[in-house]
Automatic annotation (TrEMBL):
Its EC number is 3.1.3.77. Monomer. It comes from Pseudoalteromonas luteoviolacea S4060-1. Binds 1 Mg(2+) ion per subunit. Pathway: Amino-acid biosynthesis; L-methionine biosynthesis via salvage pathway; L-methionine from S-methyl-5-thio-alpha-D-ribose 1-phosphate: step 4/6; Amino-acid biosynthesis; L-methionine biosynthesis via salvage pathway; L-methionine from S-methyl-5-thio-alpha-D-ribose 1-phosphate: step 3/6. Bifunctional enzyme that catalyzes the enolization of 2,3-diketo-5-methylthiopentyl-1-phosphate (DK-MTP-1-P) into the intermediate 2-hydroxy-3-keto-5-methylthiopentenyl-1-phosphate (HK-MTPenyl-1-P), which is then dephosphorylated to form the acireductone 1,2-dihydroxy-3-keto-5-methylthiopentene (DHK-MTPene). CDD domains: HAD_EP. It holds the Pfam family Hydrolase. This is Enolase-phosphatase E1. One of its GO terms (biological process) is L-methionine salvage from methylthioadenosine. It comes from the Bacteria.
Length: 227
């Protein structure tokens, strides 16, 4: 019996193009100025130091740090300090109304229904928890953060590692077989299954498809008894 749902964001409940065509370009354009203006802020400074640690250059100047951040954005690398800084930049964009967080209509309806039915909803995304909460706070449907019980990002581990999903299980009050993981990425589903979770793939946005896991093309097709 499914008692909790752990969901990915990109390609699952929001379109991939929103991140790639809206959020990433916005961060790339505004991140250098944001970092220069806020480098003395303790939260920002901690992430800049984390970048220096990541590139093994503890004395790297700000130009080098920014160049690496922009390179990671271009390469779409899931580096934790980059994700943290992107979240801070996106906060400004959301608050100033430059964009709202895209949510598929069928996903919004599904999340609402599951929440009302008493199923606990959790989020696991490579984007930082801050970025996740910003998207949901400023979504196309308003502030939908109350739907979710908790959020996880790469601080628990890489999304294609089974140990990451075990780390999540250790932090929530459910057994692994009671949790359904939703994602469009086969390797993530494989890792979750190895950790004992139930899985369901979303076939959206021309992502790679596999019949190794149960799958649907829309949440309108969701049937818990067929998983």
């Amino acid at each position: 019996m499914i008692k909790a749902i752990l969901t990915d964001i990109e390609g699952t409940i929001t379109r991939i193009s929103f991140v790639k065509d809206v959020l990433f370009p916005y961060a790339a354009e505004h991140l250098p100025a944001f970092v220069r203006q806020n480098e003395s802020d303790e939260l920002v400074k901690a992430q800049l130091d984390a970048v220096r640690h990541e590139i093994a250059r503890p004395t790297a100047n700000l130009d080098i740090v920014i160049d690496n951040l922009l390179s990671w954005i271009k390469e779409d690398l899931k580096v934790t300090p980059l994700k943290q800084l992107q979240g801070l930049v996106w906060q400004t964009g959301y608050q100033q109304g430059h964009f709202t967080g895209h949510i598929y209509p069928d996903a919004y309806q599904f999340l609402q229904q599951q929440h009302q039915a008493g199923t606990k909803l959790y989020v696991y995304s490579s984007g930082s928890v801050k970025a996740q909460q910003l998207l949901f706070a400023h979504s196309d449907y308003g502030d939908i953060r109350p739907l979710f019980t908790d959020y996880f990002d790469t601080k628990v581990g890489h999304k294609q590692s089974s140990s990451s999903y075990q780390n999540i299980i250790n932090q929530i009050p459910f057994e692994s077989h009671e949790v359904l993981f939703l994602s469009d990425v086969v390797e993530e589903l494989d890792a979750a299954k190895q950790a004992g979770m139930q899985t369901l793939q979303l076939w959206r946005d021309n992502q790679s498809q596999s019949q190794k896991h149960p799958f649907i093309a829309s949440f309108e097709q969701f049937d818990s008894e067929r998983i």
